[in-house]
Amino acid sequence: MIFENTLTFANRLDREDPLKDFRKKFLFPNRMGKDYIYLCGNSLGLQPKVTKEVTNLQLDRWANLAVEGWFHGDEPWMFYHKEIKRLLAPLVGAFEVEVCPMNTLTVNLHLLMVSFYRPTSKRSKIIMEAGAFPSDQYAIESQIIHHGFEPNEAIIEVFPREGESTLRTEDIVAKIKENGDEIALVLFGGINYFTGQWFDMEAITKAGHEVGAIVGFDLAHAAGNVPMKLHDWNVDFACWCSYKYQNGGPGGISAIFVHEKHFASKLNRFAGWWGYNENSRFKMDKGFVPEAGADGWQVSCTQVLPMAIYHAALKIFAEADNLEPLRIKSIALTGYLEFIINEVNKSIGFTQYRIITPANPAERGAQLSIIAKEKGKEIFDELVAKHILGDWREPDVIRFSPVPLYNSFEDIYLTGVALLNISKVILAPNND
Ligand SMILES: *Cc1c(COP(=O)(O)O)cnc(C)c1O
């Protein structure tokens, strides 16, 4: 697409956007009567307008039915997660039986590692991307220690090449081959939170399996952002949070994927009563018998309130016909943002803003990570003061995530205008 740096052009794209009305389903943060331009859906997705209603509905069910809400009325809580499974499966390319909403993300990462990281003296290593999200680093580190191994020896990180910001698939694959049969687990982010790089998940999975390792992904920044085929790609396991691109609310419910090929094997797991075979769960018998599929990893009873919020948020994806149409818009929106950032650089006269996220749309989702050469934090703070909300990562990175469900091309155009004006003032020579 040939982009233009004009409001007329941005407005035309918005008028032609088949998904334009979805924006009306969300609440935008507002200060002193003015809505923000929200470019932070990678961190916390916006609240759908129906959220209050569905929450109140569950509060009413609790008030009116109390304990009977588990089995009676419409949508009894006992089976509430099943509707979420149905909505969730197409978003990640899985069968319903392979996914289940439960717990929170880091907790799920631990639970899945209990099943899928089974180190032996010969095979104990975990391959991961350097600069993974800290929670994942801590989870992995502590799992390794739990099994009596040394994190320094067991963790193999893949780094970008000198002078580069993102990873090359060939380097990831080479690292996997190099460590071969010493690798127990390949555990990557689907999209790296800092650089916005979308890894070649299929190639990584294939390379991991070729050396006999298990392959899992943390999809916090990928789920609801990019279309995936977890089942077909033969990914062993994955987990994600719902509160980023899926708008499931702060600290909202997480979900897991376990490939069906593992259902027949007797996997180690940290069990709880809610993962027990559904038909006989309330016999309260001794001896854990897991429910078939991903449901068998549930530990505690359904967290109905956050689940209700997640359910309502996922219904919006279904109304948009899931990720295929959203992805088309997302590629255009992010491409437009990239174009606008480069326009700002041109007007300033040098590369003040360097995008470290890959330029190839197949290697990124909605997020662009932008290194600000000079006075980045001051400029970022001024953007916020002007009602433009991205996020700031030390020491010098601004992340903007135009989300196709609720961002417009006009949002991007106006962000460019503000960024240029603010930069001109803050970078002016006499401003030191
Ligand atoms: C956001 C994010 C988390 C957060 O974990 P919580 O348990 O939900 O606090 C973990 N890992 C990654 C990769 C993330 O992007």
From TrEMBL:
Pathway assigned to this chain's UniProt record: Amino-acid degradation; L-kynurenine degradation; L-alanine and anthranilate from L-kynurenine: step 1/1; Cofactor biosynthesis; NAD(+) biosynthesis; quinolinate from L-kynurenine: step 2/3
Gene Ontology biological process terms, A to Z: anthranilate metabolic process; L-kynurenine catabolic process; L-tryptophan catabolic process to kynurenine; NAD+ biosynthetic process; quinolinate biosynthetic process
Cofactor names: pyridoxal 5'-phosphate
Catalytic activity: 3-hydroxy-L-kynurenine + H2O = 3-hydroxyanthranilate + L-alanine + H(+); L-kynurenine + H2O = anthranilate + L-alanine + H(+)
Example GO molecular function: kynureninase activity
Keyword Nucleotide-binding attached: no
Claim: Protein biosynthesis is one of the keywords in the record: no
Keywords (A to Z) from UniProt: Hydrolase, Pyridine nucleotide biosynthesis, Pyridoxal phosphate
Modified residues (N6-(pyridoxal phosphate)lysine): 244
Annotated EC: 3.7.1.3
GO cellular component: cytoplasm
EC class of the enzyme, as a word: hydrolase
Ligand binding (pyridoxal 5'-phosphate): 105-106, 133-136, 218, 221, 243, 273
Domain Aminotransferase class V, chain residue ranges per copy: 153-262
Family stated for the protein in its record: Belongs to the kynureninase family.
Oligomeric form and interacting partners: Homodimer.
Listed PANTHER family: KYNURENINASE
Function as written in the Swiss-Prot or TrEMBL entry: Catalyzes the cleavage of L-kynurenine (L-Kyn) and L-3-hydroxykynurenine (L-3OHKyn) into anthranilic acid (AA) and 3-hydroxyanthranilic acid (3-OHAA), respectively.
Protein name: Kynureninase
Gene source species: Pedobacter changchengzhani
